[in-house]
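RETRY 2/3 - previous attempt timed out on the joint model. Re-submitting the same 340-residue input unchanged.
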Amino acid sequence: MTNKNNISTFSDQPTLSERQQQALKCAIQEGLPIDARPYLVLANIIGGNEQQVINCIEEWINNGLIKRFGLVIKHHKLGYNANAMVVWNVPDQQVDEIGERIKQSGLVTLCYRRPRRLPEWNYNLFCMIHGKDRNQVLDQLNQLKDACQLSDIKHDILFSYKQFKQCGGRFHKQHSEPHATQWDPNKKAINHG
Amino acid sequence: MDEINRKIINQLQRGFPICERPYEEAAKTLDITESDLISRIESLLEDKTLTRFGPMYQIEKAGGAFTLAAMTIPESEFDKVAEQVNAFPEIAHNYERAHKLNMWFVLGTENPNEIASTIKRIEDKTGYKVYNMPKLEEFYVGLYFPV
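RETRY 2/3 succeeded.
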């Protein structure tokens, strides 16, 4: 993290020490305390004050360390049962332009450029489409092709059959609980889409 | 799910206030009381509609690394290999997908050097090749699920 005041341990200092910041990252990764003054609870845990904690989290959001701060939902539980990875073989010089178009469309949840792995894999642009069922995902893919003029681009759609394991990206693996696998061997093809 | 929970989920996926009384602040915009919001979030966590309530870190900014990797595994071996792969604590999630490359997983490590060594260990353990497909460019991340 930032190196500001990393030797300071006084609670009235404007910035938390490096060590307090580390402790704060660990303390919030499992979730914000469900308490009317959650940042005060955190301040007490790490030995800082409430305002320092608030400033620090704000800074992490501003500098991008925290990508999103809010609810993390279990999407299957809310009926989002289909997810498909849609992959495209885009001419290298067009990737930026097409990636930007896909971003603007609002029809995907993720869009990344990744390397080809020839000869087995010749796709270089990856999107995720989440939907309530397979047809909704396919509809959305068709809309995407129209909206972004992608009909001529070779692509493939990889629906998921079953999910074995899911946990959010955690900051420190030693602080995350062992992740129970959600796959039940007795229910072989749990159809997620 | 009632209308208020729906609103809570839609709105608080977008963000959460950072101030002394954030639940009170959020409750105001939802037209409910602070204590109502707190107890609703508690029960949504309890019935596992929510996995977590808090930050999603950008792991690369925190010095860590993520990658997407894939393998081609014969159907008869799939369950065995899935178990071997998932035993690695670096595996964040793992899906079987409809393609010749049929096992797709995300690896997360605390520092970027560990990606290659973890992949090597997975190959050694399973006997199958791992195709590493790290992110080269991010165009969009907008995981948002309206209900």
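Residues 1-12, 168-193 of chain A have pLDDT under 50 and may be disordered. Closing ticket.
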